[in-house]
Every structure is written in C-alpha cells, then in structure tokens.
Amino acid sequence: MEVIIRSDADAAAALAARLIAARVREKPGLVLGLATGRTMERVYDRLAAMKLDFSACRSFNLDEYIGLPANDEHSYRRYMDAHLFSRVNIHRANTHVPDGMAADLGAEAARYEWLIREAGGIDLQLLGIGEAGHIGFNEPLSALMSRTREKALTPATRQQNAAMFGGDAGRVPARALTMGVGTILDGRELLLLATGAAKAAVLAKAVEGPITAMISASALQLHPRCKVILDEAAASALTQRDYYDWVFQNEPEWESYRT
Ligand code: F6R
Questions:
Q1: Are the C-beta atoms of 164 and 74 separated by less than 8 Å?
Q2: Rounded to the nearest whole angstrom, what is the distance from the C-alpha of residue 153 to the centroid of ligand 1?
Q3: Quick check: helix, strand or coil at residue 257?
Q4: 9 in ligand 1 pocket by Cβ < 6 Å?
C-alpha cells in the first residue's frame, strides 16, 4: 500500500484523475471499477474535462441501492450518468451497475460477478471509504472473502448518505447490492480516495490498524497494488506520515505526478 497526501480535496482528486487517465491511455480497453459518492464528484469533473478516449473502456460500479429504479434521481446509475457517463465517450452498453430492482437479487449478484469475469476482471478499481470503514457497501462484519450480494446498510451509513435524500436518513434505502470485499480485492490495481476530517479516524484504522472485518477497508492492506490518496484533513490521524511522503518523493513510479 502507498499513501499519498495532497494539500486539499481538489489536489487529491486531481492526482486520482491523473492516475486514472494514465491507465486509460496505457490500455484503451481498460476495465474500470467505479464508485459513487461526494468524494468522487471532483474526480469525475476532472476526467470529463480531460477529453479522454473511453470508447473501448468497460466499467463496473461497486454498488446500487435495492428498490430504486435506474431512473430514480437517487440511484447510483443516475449518479453515474450525470457525473461521468454522459460527459465522456464511454458506450452506455459497456457500463454496468448492479440492478437494485432485480426480482431475484441473488441471481443478479451472480450475474454481476459473471460479467466482471467475462470482461477479464477489473484493471483499476476506484474506491471511497465510509465513515464506518466500508468500501462499496461492505458494512462492518462483511466477510473479507465476500462476493457481490445483498447487504443491509448500517444506520451510520444511511445517516452519512441522508444529505442526498433531503437530509432524511429514513428515506435512504435500507439495503444495497454491493461487490464483496473479495470481489474488490480481485481488482488488479486499487485506488482509494478519501478527503475531509470526517474520514480521518476511520482512515487511520483502515491503513495502520489491524485487518478486521469490522472495517472492510482494512482488507486493502492485503492487496499488492493499492494506492490511497488523501487530503491533509483525511490524513491527519496517520502516524507514519513522514515515511509515506518520503516514498512519494522518491519512488520512480511517482516521478511524473510530483508536480
Ligand atoms: C459508493 C460507495 C461508498 C462510498 C463511501 C464514501 O459507491 O461505494 O463506499 O465511496 O460511502 O462516500 P462519500 O464520498 O459520499 O463520502
């Protein structure tokens, strides 16, 4: 794992976008794993402005609320259309979001896993982190080997996402379909982006604490190619900051990203 700390949320998102852009240029047929949420909005704004060629890319989103049709204003399909897909030249047929309206959610989860395998697996998975430590909607006690499945959301997560539902946590769907922790760890490269002081405590547990199913993001420590990009506020509870900065300043891989 490598941790890169930038001055603010804009600079952190800019670095994440540059890294994604580099991967798209290296491999035009990149299979991208995508996340939703407020943190990602800045990344998608940047990607849209870069005029990249996504025409051969395929994408798989981490999760979707159960019970919201794709055209619901709060669905993650709608979020993706608004923030990224309608602004770049990705083919809609190549974009995938779990179907939270499927009559058989178990079958939909199995289909989603199959689609990812058929695509050759995810090359680069973008991740945010919830205040309770989730990646995707892998809430506390999600098995570290879990696959795509239905998951009940914690009250904390529904509260965290209430702003998108007029501030009313009761209107946030109680369940979601989400890639599992195991599905996420199968990605060839992982990129977690976190900004803001509200993420500082859980981020420090995920990066520097023990691996535990209580904080699914801690499972990222198992991945051989995982980058964590933070702003100063989200990094404020980390203890090994000097080392992380030294790696960023000295490892050849980061040379073109230092300016
Ligand atoms: C969303 C997702 C979640 C979010 C996380 C952070 O697809 O998978 O794990 O990334 O809840 O959300 P924000 O960015 O809104 O703080």
A1: yes
A2: 12
A3: helix
A4: no
**35 CA to centre of ligand 1 in angstroms:** 7
The atom of ligand 1 lying closest to the CA of 138 is: 9
pTM above 0.90, yes or no: yes
pLDDT (tens digit, 9 = 90+) per residue, 24-59? 999 999 999 999 999 999 999 999 999 999 999 999
Where residue 167 falls (left for φ over 0; alpha for ψ -120 to 50; beta otherwise) is: left
Å from CA of 130 to ligand 1 middle: 6
CA 152 – ligand 1 centroid, Å: 15
**Sheet containing 2-6: order of strands:** 2-6, 226-231, 189-194, 124-127, 31-34, 58-61, 95-96
pLDDT confidence of residue 259:
80
**Do 125 and 170 meet the contact criterion of CB atoms below 8 Å apart?**
no
Please answer whether residues 191 and 126 qualify as being in contact, where contact means their C-beta atoms are separated by less than 8 angstroms. yes
Beta carbons of 192 and 135 less than 8 angstroms apart: yes
